[in-house]
Amino acid sequence: MSTLLFISGSELFIVFFAILLLFGADKIPEIARTLGKGMKEFKKATDEIKKEMNSQGSDLKKDLKDIKKDIDKTKNDILG
Fold first, then answer.
1. Which residues contact 28 (CB under 8 A, 6 or more apart)?
2. How far apart are CA 76 and CA 80, in angstroms?
């Protein structure tokens, strides 16, 4: 098994065993469901941030192109 966040298989087993002892077998599905929902919300939020950053990036590129056009036009007007 490859390392997951630098945790070996035996360490992962110990963590799962400790969770089982602390919460009991009946609570584990509820905890897993809650973690799954939290991860889904986190992924959704990061996707929205990425989408917004890409949108802002394309707007910035458009603005820079417009500025470059204005500079080139001014340069051509000055130089003749």
1. 19, 20
2. 6
Evaluate if pTM is beyond 0.70.
no
Helix, strand, coil percentages (3-state) for the chain, rounded to 5, are 85, 0, 15
Distance of CA 71 to the CA centre of its chain: 37
Q: How confident is the model at residue 63 (pLDDT cuts 50, 70, 90)?
A: confident
Residue 32 lies in a domain: yes
> What domain range is 18 assigned to?
9-79
Query: 4 in a domain, yes or no?
Result: no
Quickly state the pLDDT bin for 67 (edges 50, 70, 90): very high
Residue linked to tokens 């469901």: 33
- Find, among 34, 16, 15, the residue nearest to 25 by Cα: 16
